Amino acid sequence: MSNSQANSAPSAPSHNQLDTKAQAWSALFSEPMSDLVKRYTSSVFFDKRLWQADIAGSLAHAEMLAAQGIISASDHADIQRGMAQITSEIESGGFEWKLDLEDVHLNIEARLTQLVGDAGKRLHTGRSRNDQVATDVRLWLRSEIDLIADLLKELQVSLVDVAEQNVEVILPGFTHLQVAQPVSFGHHMLAYVEMFARDAERMADVRRRVNVLPLGSAALAGTTYPLDRERVARSLGMDGVCQNSLDAVSDRDFAIEFTAAASLCMVHVSRLSEELIIWMSQNFGFIRIADRFTTGSSIMPQKKNPDVPELARGKTGRVVGHLMGLITLMKGQPLAYNKDNQEDKEPLFDTVDTLKDTLRIFAEMVGGQLNPATGQKEGGITVNAPAMEQAALKGYATATDLADYLVKKGLPFRDAHETVAHAVKAAVSHQVDLSELPLAVLQGFHPQIEKDVFDALSLRGSLNARNTLGGTAPAQVRAQLARHRARLG
Ligand code: ARG
């Protein structure tokens, strides 16, 4: 039945198979879609990556339809057989994806009907692409979140490994990128572990809201068939069913939330990237990263550029951009489903791809790669402890310790602060560290300064003194290491 005949006499119902997209909705249409519109509206070339979720959702739906007596057992068996065949066709690369069939859902359904006939046409009973696509995206995202959770764990383990080897290594801690106080490099690494641990928690939290079933909401209002939605949810391993059909088919807040969590995680990666870049610059020389994560310059033979951290910093902008795209996509959309939502996929897919690649590469770049021969990880970042310590000796990192020393002798903190400022000024003019000023000179700033001041002024003394919970004293860092090891298993 060709569409062009629709304007003339009323026509008999078509029994054609679903070969083109127009046939998915009916003979109501009086002209075919132009090629440009077909291309503009179709999503198959990106949403085909939902195929496994689409088939899983369809199988769960068909199983329930059969259990409820809505389709026969033999239709159900045909659908299962057809889907098994489609699965192997897609896996082997033999499946022919057709632009004409718009999206992954229509492509698979059309092929099913080609393979098993009427049973294929019965699959869509009590279902719409609106609840179908919402279900597919949720199923797909759920499994991606699980992979991301593993990668976040790997990255944390890498950071904990580096932290453990560097508890006693001292570098200057910065505020405003000015030398502030000495900190343990292990402590510094564990700051990132805290960030990525929160990212993992956020992902787990998002997963709870992703893992809820829209199927059974049909186009927008529910359906007239006696569906058992709880049964479908159980068979798909979902934690519950969406309780309002209009909301279920239309909101993409779960994708937005995920992208927000991914953006924050990338922001954390970008902070680490920035530090790695600074630390490996010649002026710092604190660390080296393995050559395989750097590139040379085509003109300057001496260069080794930190391309991977730089790209990660750049890709953070890309993911934050996807968040802006998705949240703007949702803004002002009336209930219920609108085609705008088809635009959720590319930003979501790219967010997942970018985040996964970034986490994988960072876990290896920081912690190294397992050498199966030795059972050890190799090729992670190399720490130049003397360079770090040397830098901490510049910049009066222990000035606060001198103030604290005076407070312990009874001075009010503000007065001690002022006294030390004078001492630092003198040290600056002599171009020496505070610890290099003779005792007599120090005593000129305050008579209560005694020989034991030099313990307070040493980097190690300063570090050990910050022994409050969460502080940088090695004892505290070791306690945190143990906590993270236990948590990460
Ligand atoms: N490809 C569509 C999407 O991604 C599937 C849902 C289409 N529904 C519709 N009523 N046109 O959102």
UniProtKB/TrEMBL annotation:
<feature type="domain" description="Fumarate lyase N-terminal">
    <location>
        <begin position="29"/>
        <end position="321"/>
    </location>
</feature>
<dbReference type="InterPro" id="IPR009049">
    <property type="entry name" value="Argininosuccinate_lyase"/>
</dbReference>
<dbReference type="InterPro" id="IPR029419">
    <property type="entry name" value="Arg_succ_lyase_C"/>
</dbReference>
<dbReference type="GO" id="GO:0005829">
    <property type="term" value="C:cytosol"/>
</dbReference>
<keyword id="KW-0456">Lyase</keyword>
<keyword id="KW-0963">Cytoplasm</keyword>
<comment type="pathway">
    <text>Amino-acid biosynthesis; L-arginine biosynthesis; L-arginine from L-ornithine and carbamoyl phosphate: step 3/3.</text>
</comment>
<feature type="domain" description="Argininosuccinate lyase C-terminal">
    <location>
        <begin position="396"/>
        <end position="464"/>
    </location>
</feature>
<dbReference type="InterPro" id="IPR020557">
    <property type="entry name" value="Fumarate_lyase_CS"/>
</dbReference>
<protein>
    <recommendedName>
        <fullName>Argininosuccinate lyase</fullName>
        <ecNumber>4.3.2.1</ecNumber>
    </recommendedName>
</protein>
<dbReference type="Pfam" id="PF14698">
    <property type="entry name" value="ASL_C2"/>
</dbReference>
<comment type="similarity">
    <text>Belongs to the lyase 1 family. Argininosuccinate lyase subfamily.</text>
</comment>
<dbReference type="GO" id="GO:0042450">
    <property type="term" value="P:L-arginine biosynthetic process via ornithine"/>
</dbReference>
<dbReference type="Pfam" id="PF00206">
    <property type="entry name" value="Lyase_1"/>
</dbReference>
<dbReference type="GO" id="GO:0004056">
    <property type="term" value="F:argininosuccinate lyase activity"/>
</dbReference>
<keyword id="KW-0028">Amino-acid biosynthesis</keyword>
<dbReference type="InterPro" id="IPR000362">
    <property type="entry name" value="Fumarate_lyase_fam"/>
</dbReference>
<keyword id="KW-0055">Arginine biosynthesis</keyword>
<dbReference type="InterPro" id="IPR022761">
    <property type="entry name" value="Fumarate_lyase_N"/>
</dbReference>
<dbReference type="InterPro" id="IPR008948">
    <property type="entry name" value="L-Aspartase-like"/>
</dbReference>
<dbReference type="InterPro" id="IPR024083">
    <property type="entry name" value="Fumarase/histidase_N"/>
</dbReference>
